[in-house]
Amino acid sequence: MSAVAGDSKVATKQRLIEAAEELFADDGFDRVSVRDITTKAGANVAAVNYHFGSREGLIAVVLTRSINPVNEERLARLDTLERRAAGKPLPIEEILDAYIRPFATQVRRSELTEKIFFKLMGRMFGHGCDMPPVVEQLFINMSSRFYKAFAKALPGLAPDDIWWRMHLMGGSMIHTMAHGEKLLRMSGGEAGTPTLEQTLSRFIRFAAAGMRQGSEDGQEEQKTRGPQVEFPF
User: Fold this and answer.
1) Other CB atoms within 10 A of residue 11 CB
2) How do residues 130-159 score in pLDDT, each as one tens digit?
3) SS3 string of 166-178?
4) Can you give the pLDDT at residue 126?
5) Going by C-beta distance under 8 Å and a sequence separation of 6 or more, which residues neighbour residue 50?
6) Which residue stretches of the chain have pLDDT < 70?
7) Can you list the domains of the chain with their CATH numbers?
8) What is the model's pLDDT at position 210?
């Protein structure tokens, strides 16, 4: 095979991945066909099977290349925080920042626009299909590490309560990423167009209040700050 032919195949594979990412972000995984992807990529219908084995194989590549960097950075950030804390509980806001901020850093490294990136992430995390084993295992490792950090920071909360709060927090994060632009329309523009940093700050403060509710840490905060807590977004 000549170098030109090899480069052409690599370029076709890359175009298929990029076309799939944009289409999945806009329309969801279930509604996008192989023909939709190949048409957008300017490739033959058989190209998906040739490069990825199947439509599911292409989905696995899209999932792996988009989600794994986020989860790897989450773990790296948590490692750094825990080394610095030297065994002491971490502030809830710092744990949440380690969990959320990788979306901001990864969108800057992505070739996708910010809007497409967050829509794609929302689709992925809300998608019900089986994840590739390498993605699922990293998810399990990441979730277990963050559970332990939250459990240490939230004394008095039962394990099931912590897991459910993480689940609810993750669900609201998915909704924010996938449907953030709808709020602007529903509010008639009153929701504004916050920067990514403003949205992260708002979400972290909101999630921290929910995670603390009913814990010893949360009860102490209520005693010291009163029942009406202001969050200066």
Assistant:
1) 12
2) 677 888 888 899 999 999 999 999 998 999
3) HHHHHHHHHHHHH
4) 65
5) none
6) 1-7, 126-130, 178, 216-233
7) 1-53 (1.10.10.60), 63-225 (1.10.357.10)
8) 94
**How would DSSP label each residue in the chain?**
--HHHHHHHHHHHHHHHHHHHHHHHHH-TTT--HHHHHHHHT--TTHHHHHHSSHHHHHHHHHHHHHHHHHHHHHHHHHHHHHHHTTSPPPHHHHHHHHHTHHHHHHHHSSS-HHHHHHHHHHHHH--SPPPHHHHHHHHHHHHHHHHHHHHHSTT--HHHHHHHHHHHHHHHHHHHHHHHHHHHHTTTTT----HHHHHHHHHHHHHHHHHTTSHHHHHHHHHH-SS-----
- Token digits for 64? 């792996």
Please report, as a single letter, which amino acid is at residue 208: A
Nearest to 152 by CA among 100, 81, 54: 81
Report the alpha-carbon distance of residue 210 to residue 45 in Å, rounded.
48
